[in-house]
Amino acid sequence: MYDLYARLLDIADRACRAGIAYSPFVSMEHLAEGYAIAKNKGIKIADYGGYDDAERKLICFYTDDEIPEFPIDCVFISSREELKHSQILGAVLGLGIDRDTLGDIVLQDGGAYIFCLKHIANFIVDNLLTVGREHVKTKKLSSLPKLERAPGLQKRVTISSLRLDALISTALNLSRTKAATLVSQSRVYL
After folding, report:
1. By CB neighbour count within 10 A (0-12 exposed, 13-18 middle, 19+ buried), where does 177 fall?
2. How many CB atoms lie within 10 A of CB 16?
3. First-last CA distance in the chain
4. Which of 14, 130, 139, 163 could disulfide-pair with 21, CB 3.0 to 4.6 Å?
5. How far apart are CA 169 and CA 175, in angstroms?
């Protein structure tokens, strides 16, 4: 893979010269790196993933006063059968698309919304014909959808120590070893 921190530094340097530059889609753990870079360089930063609760987002480094528009489009996929997130992601990546050009995949409204960079949306619509063995219909949306936040579960727990793995273990009814593995694999965000 590549060093995303170094890539974010290069993108911020480009913004210093050109006034604006966008990162690829990044996960929440890399957003903090982007904000630290922007602060260090004295430039502005904004992030957006196509809807309010997005987990994967673009970072925009910029120098003007107004936040620029993000180059994000959304493709809606529908099928007669229920599709799984992993199947959709695999099918889209199977087209030869890089993961960093894709944002979240949201299963909702009897289909799936794929947030992606503008330059890749038409390619997905033209080439994504099947997901798994299921034929799919794709449509590029004229505007980004207003998605509802997924309902969460509120749970009150008492833990023996103020450790993240202890909290995850208790909240999800997992062994502490399994919880620690989730944390070490960067599958838990604080």
Report:
1. exposed
2. 15
3. 24
4. 14
5. 6
Model pLDDT, residue 184: 81
* CA–CA distance, 130 with 91 (Å, rounded to integer): 7
Q: Are strands 134-135 and 130-131 parallel, antiparallel or unpaired?
A: antiparallel
| CB-based contact 148:103 (threshold 8 Å) | no
Q: pLDDT-derived band of residue 180, with 50, 70 and 90 as boundaries?
A: confident
CA dist 122 to 22, 29, 139, Å?
20, 29, 9
Q: Which two tokens stand for residue 120?
A: 């890749």
Q: What angle do CA 90, 92, 96 make, to 5 degrees?
A: 100
Amino acid letter for position 86: S
Over 70: is that where the pLDDT of 8 sits? yes
Question: Can you tell me the mean pLDDT for 58-71?
Answer: 93
Residue with tokens 């593995």: 181
Q: Residue 1 has what pLDDT?
A: 41
What CA–CA distance (Å, rounded) separates 123 from 107? 20
